[in-house]
Each structure stands twice: as C-alpha cells, then as structure tokens.
Design a protein that fits this description.
- By secondary structure, chain A is mainly beta.
- Helices cover 0% and strands 53% of the residues of chain A.
- Chain A has no helices and eleven strands.
- In chain A, the strands form two sheets. In chain A, strands 2, 4, 5, 9, 10 and 11 form a six-stranded mixed beta sheet that branches. Chain A has a five-stranded antiparallel beta sheet with strand order 1-3-8-7-6, with no helix packed on it.
- The radius of gyration of chain A is 13 Å and the shape is globular.
- Chain B is mostly beta strands.
- In chain B, strands 2, 4, 5, 6, 9, 10 and 11 form a seven-stranded mixed beta sheet that branches. Chain B has a four-stranded antiparallel beta sheet with strand order 1-3-8-7, with no helix packed on it.
- Chain B has no helices and eleven strands.
- In chain B, strand 5 and strand 6 form a beta hairpin.
- The termini of chain B are far apart.
- The chains are: A mainly beta, B mainly beta.
- At the A-B interface, strand 4, strand 5 and strand 9 of A face strand 4, strand 5 and strand 10 of B.
Chain lengths: 111, 114
C-alpha cells in the first residue's frame, strides 16, 4: 500500500518565525499532493496543493515544495502566527480514486 | 455556507447496537468518502462513492456499510458496533473521483463504543 509519512511528529516555533513541515512519500507514481490543516475538534482544511509537474507553488504565507527525486514534500509557513497552531497532514494521490494521508505533524506556535 | 454537514457531532453507543452516521453535502460533488481518524494512524478510508448509485470499499471497510441513493447524502452504518470502532469519523467529498482539487471535509462525528 501507499506510505505517506512525516519526519517530525511535533514542531514548536516562535511567533513570527518561519515553519517548515516535511513529508516523505513512497510511491513514485503519485502525481498530486495536498497539505491539510486540522485544528482541534475540526475537520481537515485544504491549504495548498501541487501537481507532480511542478516543483514549487505559493499561496498566501504558504509555499509547498516538491522534490520528486527523493520523494519529499514540504510546507513552509512564513511569519507563523498563533492561529497556525494545528496538525498538518500531507496527502498523495497515486492513481487510485482517493487520497492517502500521513499521520500528521503538530505545529505549536509559541507567543 | 456550502459544505458538508455531519450528524451527530458525538455519540456514546453501547456495543452491539446499530448506528448510522449521517453526511450531507450541498456542493453537488460527485465523489464522497468516509474516513476514520485514530491517534497515530492518521486518516484511513472506510468506503467511498464515485457517483450516486455506486460505492466501493476502502482500506478498513469491515463492520461498516454505506449507500449513495442520491448525490447529496452518504450515510455510514455500523450494523453491530464494537469498541474498536471508537474513533472520529470524517465524511469528505470531491468534485470528481479523480480528486483534482482535493477534498472538502465535514467537522466529524466522535463515536465512543462502550
């Protein structure tokens, strides 16, 4: 089966600093990747996505980088704010009609 | 506000009882999904439906059934609940089975089987 994992289960950053959350995937056939944010007691919320024909994509304060050579995905959050505290998941699509999710990284922003 | 509505938000259920978790979307999305979320295991797919009238099994389908009588509704039924089904259940939808724009998730149902 698919394997989507995260290098660090927890990450603490100072407010205002940049955050980088990493994700490794195992299926080289995966062609679409998504980052989700999940706040306590809520469902996952779409943040940003990237297709395999791209290396980088930017959103508002967030950037996703894709390195297909080493099958690595990262989410960069600029000027991290307390409202960014949540669990972040990466997900991949590898031909099947659904997504496979990693177990998540908990980001804690220290005021 | 367009999105997915799940009900109930939480439930304590006696083992052996039957329970249906409700999911309704108003985005006219073709595909819908049920996931369970357990600490340390992430989100695991239970069942999915690519379009009204069709369903398929996901990674952990045993003990669960679904139906898709129309586009908007995708109920999940536990025929005879067991404690291992204690989890948070999320319903999701996407505009197409190809998942070209990710999923929209509901707020979840927290189920405790005792």
């Amino acid at each position: 089966g698919e394997s989507v994992g995260l290098h660090l289960p927890t990450l603490s950053v100072q407010e205002g600093d940049n955050s980088i959350i990493n994700c490794a995937y195992s299926n080289s056939a995966s062609d679409y990747f998504i980052w989700y944010k999940q706040e306590s007691g809520k469902g996952p919320q779409f943040i940003i996505d990237i297709r395999s024909n791209m290396d980088k994509r930017q959103g508002q304060r967030v950037t996703v980088l894709l390195n297909k050579t080493v099958k690595h995905l990262s989410l960069q959050i600029a000027a991290t704010q307390p409202g960014d505290s949540a669990v972040y998941f990466c997900a991949e699509r590898a031909g099947a009609n659904n997504l496979f999710f990693g177990t998540g990284t908990r980001l804690t922003v220290i005021p | 506000i367009a999105g997915i509505t799940q009900a109930p938000t939480s439930q304590i259920l006696a083992a052996g009882r039957r329970m249906t978790l409700r999911c309704t979307q108003d985005m006219r999305h073709n595909a819908m999904y049920w996931y369970r979320q357990d600490l340390g295991l992430g989100l695991r797919l239970i069942h999915y439906s690519n379009t009204a009238g069709t369903t398929g099994k996901g990674e952990v389908p045993d003990g669960y059934s679904v139906s898709r009588a129309n586009t908007d509704d995708f109920p999940l039924t536990l025929a005879s609940a067991v404690p291992s089904q204690t989890s948070v259940y999320f319903c999701a939808s996407s505009d197409s089975p190809a998942v070209s724009n990710g999923y929209t998730f509901g707020s979840g149902t927290r189920l405790t089987v005792v």
